[in-house]
Design brief:
heterodimer, A: alpha+beta, D-Maltodextrin-Binding Protein, domain 2, 2 domains, 5-stranded mixed beta sheet, 17 helices, globular, B: mainly alpha, MetI-like fold, 74% helix, cell inner membrane (chain B), transmembrane helix (chain B), MetI-like_sf (chain B), MetI-like (chain B), cell membrane (chain B)
Chain lengths: 416, 288
């Protein structure tokens, strides 16, 4: 039961965040990202962390994610002498808003110690100096990741620069009901053809919803002849050259969509509800981990399968960031390091627990760690990361996202 | 808003008047119409709660089954293990605190607006109602910076801001009550030798009690149902039921947990409403 006041105001969040950023940039130029307390060794950090409480703010809509943190990460943190508390929010922007407020008021004992974040929330925060930076190299478990992994060094085109520690990888995934689609398409272009041949059985969430926005970028790659043809860094020339084909394609698609495209699901959870209710035959998610549970619990039909596209889909990583206003930085670092450990990453990757793809480099694992991952059960619905991330496409820079969303709103949503 | 009859006015007299005027026949038709409307309204309000009630005990309910395929307490279990109990305690404490602050303040404001009008009264009324006119998000964003800078503990900040949001409601309800309030009763009691304490306890309080209950209830609701202020100003120190509902409802496949949490969110206001309704109705006729 969201109070109407809250719902109404949530629409204002984007505007207000922008407003606050604007105001604060008028008041004083955003300072260089804060550095961690000077020259601390890992021993110093762990001893400082003992007895501290870390508030981890994370999107609370994923019950498996909540359960993983409550039942695995919190007890493990307690063994290191750190009290970990999970603060559930409906949207990661709520956490960012809180951090920006604390930043503006100059506090150093803030209420947010760790945030599960990526993409534009990270980029917006980094621009405003909301994150502590340069601390991830201190984490011993960072050696288990591949320093050359592009997914971990750039977050939607924003250089990570030690401002957040990797946590999970994800792959954009389209799922379908194999009972209704016996002969599934093999490319995104093939999917669009299927949609035109089967009017009313497909739709996508309206951008700027995160998932709907990813879908439009997938279509952009497809109509441009592959991701290699699209410059990842935003430039207006490329945008003007490439988007007409995308917008024409999406406009052509509109009459074949659910309810003839007269309306779109507002969020990915609305699309998921349509799919669960049998009104459409496809759904899409940037968190394929949830599919296993949704099928096992009967929310989704048992005939749900993952659509593997020949040209691949976009992939990303999500991170744990420490706000520059956190008063418990050492303890937050201990938790971030713990979350990167072989045991925690393996537990998190278990489809029965959460099923999130690990960020570790298989070549860097210890023999025991490798055994942990080898013994993980596989999901009956979701193929392994190796399969899903085959031909993985890189994400466009964050600056593309609002530009594409706005073009979609003007030409596809409002246009005829 | 129910009309509170002055305690001295005999209801029987009114009824006899109506009978003499020959209104009895059309009253029967009126009663049927009224009952039908009430029944339709009850269906209108209760119908959406039926699937909610079913979801609470549905361990598995997949499309297109009309009823849950497996019944059980899994949803209740997982809601409890995700902090429903602490959320309930948090919400209850917040609602009660806001009610305890905003009701007496509302009484004071309403009493002075009603009995001590000045040329500033309109200005004060406008100020009191300002929180309703301004978008909450804007106010909260600005205030939060101030509260953090002043190092106000975040829970106290939430109570303070929500009290400001509850004040228009309590003031409005009490202003109406004082509008129908005859100061003559108090004066008469004084003339008869009652002390100030006796006047307050035996004359004032019984007269405003129903309105007081309504005002306290509205103030409680403001604290009980808030999301935005709790999350932004509370900064995670206060996890209430609306926070849990909103975060669970943001995901897919959580219908059961959302149903459990929604019922938890619904129960106390409903209980209070029934209680306030009963006390509010009994009062005028409670004379021997």
């Amino acid at each position: 039961m969201k109070s109407p006041r809250a719902v109404g105001s949530r629409a204002l969040i984007m505007a207000a965040v922008t407003g606050v950023l604007f105001l604060s940039s008028c008041a004083a130029p955003p300072p260089a990202p804060a550095q961690p307390p000077g020259a601390a060794s890992w021993e110093q950090i762990t001893s400082e962390a003992k007895g501290q409480t870390v508030k981890l703010w994370m999107y609370g809509g994923d019950t498996q994610g909540n359960a993983y943190v409550d039942e695995h990460l919190i007890p493990a943190a307690a063994k290191e002498g750190v009290t970990l508390e999970r603060v559930p929010v409906a949207d990661t922007k709520d956490a960012l808003n809180r951090v920006l407020t604390e930043k503006q008021s100059g506090t150093t004992a803030g209420q947010v110690d760790l945030v599960w974040v990526n993409g534009d929330n990270f980029g917006t925060g980094k621009e405003a100096g909301a994150w502590a930076c340069g601390w991830t190299s201190l984490l011993p478990n960072m050696s288990l990741t591949d320093p050359a992994d592009p997914l971990l060094s750039e977050d939607f085109g924003t250089p990570v620069e030690g401002c957040e520690a990797p946590w999970s990888k994800a792959q954009f995934t389209i799922a379908y009901n194999s009972a209704a689609v016996p002969d599934p398409p093999k490319t995104l272009a093939g999917l669009l053809d299927w949609v035109k041949a089967h009017p009313g059985r497909f739709t996508y969430p309206a951008p700027p919803d995160f998932t709907g926005s990813v879908f439009t970028r997938e279509v952009l790659y497809s109509v441009s002849g592959g991701y290699a043809k699209v410059r990842l860094a935003f430039d207006q020339g490329a945008f003007d050259r490439l988007t007409p084909a995308l917008l024409t394609e999406l406009q052509d698609l509109k009459p074949s969509l659910w309810r003839e495209g007269s309306t779109y699901p507002k969020s990915s959870s609305e699309l998921n509800a349509l799919y669960a209710g049998g009104q459409v035959d496809f759904t899409m998610t940037y968190g394929p981990a949830e599919l296993t549970k949704l099928v096992t619990e009967g929310t989704y039909p048992a005939t749900t399968k993952v659509l593997t596209l020949e040209e691949g889909t976009v992939g990303n990583a999500s991170f744990l960031a420490i706000p520059s206003t956190s008063g418990h930085r050492s303890a937050a670092m201990v938790v971030a390091n713990l979350a990167l450990s072989e045991e925690q990453q393996a537990q998190k990757a278990d489809p029965a627990i959460w099923g999130q793809f690990p960020v570790l480099n298989p070549g860097a694992l210890s023999p025991e760690g490798r055994a942990l991952f080898d013994h993980l059960p596989s999901s009956p619905v979701v193929p392994g990361y190796e399969v899903l991330s085959k031909n993985a496409n890189p994400e466009l820079a964050a600056a593309w996202v609002p530009a594409l969303d706005e073009a979609w709103r003007r030409h596809v949503l409002a246009g005829n | 808003m129910a009309v509170t009859l002055p305690p001295g006015l005999p209801r029987e007299a009114l009824r006899k008047d109506a009978a003499r005027n020959g209104l009895t026949r059309s009253r029967a038709a009126g009663r049927i119409l009224r009952t039908a409307t009430a029944a339709a309204l009850a269906v209108w309000f209760v119908l959406p709660l039926v699937p909610l009630g079913l979801w609470v005990f549905a361990d598995r309910w997949s499309y297109p089954a009309p009823l849950p395929q497996h019944w059980g307490l899994e949803n209740v279990d997982s809601a409890l293990s995700r902090g429903a109990a602490t959320g309930f305690a948090g919400s209850l404490a917040l609602g009660l605190a806001v009610s305890a602050l905003a009701t007496p303040l509302g009484v004071l404001a309403a009493r002075s607006l009603a009995f001590h009008p000045s040329r500033w009264s309109a200005l004060f009324s406008a100020l009191l109602f300002a929180p309703l006119a301004l978008p909450a998000f804007v106010t909260v964003f600005g205030l939060n910076v101030l509260l953090v800078r002043l190092q106000v503990p975040s829970s106290a900040g939430v109570v303070l801001v929500l009290t400001a949001y509850a004040l228009p409601y309590t003031t409005y309800v009490m202003r109406l009550a004082f509008g129908a309030h005859d100061l003559g009763f108090e004066e008469e009691a004084c003339t008869l030798g009652a002390t100030r304490g006796q006047v307050f306890l035996r004359v004032q309080l019984p007269l405003i009690a129903p309105a007081l209950a309504r005002a306290a209830f509205l103030a409680f609701l403001v604290g009980w149902s808030d999301y935005l202020v709790t999350v932004l100003i509370g900064g995670g120190s206060l996890v209430t039921v609306p926070l849990l509902v909103a975060s669970a409802a943001a995901g897919t496949g959580n219908d059961g947990i959302v149903a459990v949490l929604s019922l938890i969110a619904l129960a106390p206001p409903l209980a209070l409403l029934l209680f306030a309704g009963m006390t509010g109705r009994r009062r005028p006729g409670a004379r021997p």
